[in-house]
Input
Amino acid sequence: MSKAVLVVGGAFGDEGKGKVVSYLAVKDKVDVAVRGGVGPNAGHTVVSGGKTYKVRLVPTAFTNPQTRLLIGAGVVVNPQILLEEVDLTGARGRLGIDYQSGIIDEEHIQRDKVGHLKEKIGTTGTGTGPANADRVLRKGKVARDILALQEFLTDVAGEVNSALDEGKQVLVEGTQGTFLSLYHGTYPFVTSKDTTASAACADVGLGPLRVAEVIVVFKAYLTRVGEGPLEGEIPTEEVVKRGWGEFGTVTGRMRRAAPFNFKLAKRACILNSATQIALTKLDVLFKCDAHVKKFEDLSAEAKNFVRKIEDEIGVKVTLIGTGPGVDDMIDRRCLV
Ligand code: GTP
Ligand code: IMP
Ligand code: MG
Output
């Protein structure tokens, strides 16, 4: 029997979970990767084999061609986006969607692009929130109702639990970030579901005792798209000057930015019962550290920053991103 590894975001999404998961999928020879989280409001960028992929529903572990790819019952799916990504990522034949994953239809998308959701909350406009609202009202469609999805349907909770019983490597991918959680985030400027590790477990049908490691991903600085508080927010010109300028994968909106916030990060680690931290974009903070592969080779400033995180939060930083490529990673998991 084995236990699952869970990857979740520690801030406002876009922490670089896509890259962390695609690295782990190959490095750890993951047998089953299962996507929890909210829906196609997520956008993950994966740079692998010289190609850049942007995926919103297919698990980012697709970079390992041996990995079985699953989407949990808790996720809401836009069938059209999913089918496009199946072709893009080569997932056909190894992708499974739970019978009861929720469905986003055109009307949900229209409702997400007007009024309160667009103007006050600044949602992604992908129909994710309205689809979850209809689900709560028990009138939304689920995957088994959709003709085009029949070939992918499976019992995801059954598959994932059996894989663990057989001692296989299972990786759970969360989406968004802890402070976009409907329960624990900056309400009302949040997404339409809980986004913490416990929610990711429920999304895919895993009980809380079936998880060995919770990896919480932080970027070396904070970004946020849409409305809502961002302590220490930096003016746009300064964001650009520092090289922190980013644009949303789904919406193309410029991301707001602020320095790393130790207090928020500590709370994220508590809310997710983090056992490890993955820190991405260290090379953006410390330019001379681009593509470094060993902790010893980092600059003194970068090492001090990592140590400060570990000291203040009390969780080891085991994975460090030093560039956009899947291989631009320092792996210190031997420390835990
Ligand atoms: P999640 O929403 O958390 O999955 O993050 P993401 O993968 O969606 O991030 P997104 O694509 O929104 O933006 C992250 C960008 O940073 C992508 O272009 C990644 O390729 C890139 N990236 C990820 N890790 C690193 C890193 O360590 N260094 C650098 N320079 N780029 C990185
Ligand atoms: P919704 O999830 O589309 O309803 O959007 C609600 C809030 O969450 C908005 O501020 C969005 O910008 C934000 N959000 C949702 N998904 C993501 C994501 O994947 N990355 C960053 N922000 C997101
Ligand atoms: Mg993203």
Remarks:
- The chain has a mean pLDDT of 96.
- The radius of gyration is 19 Å.
- Residues 9, 13-19, 42-45, 47, 249, 280-281, 283-284, 321-324, 328 surround guanosine-5'-triphosphate (ligand 1) (CB under 6 Å).
- Residues 102 and 135 are 7 Å apart (CA to CA).
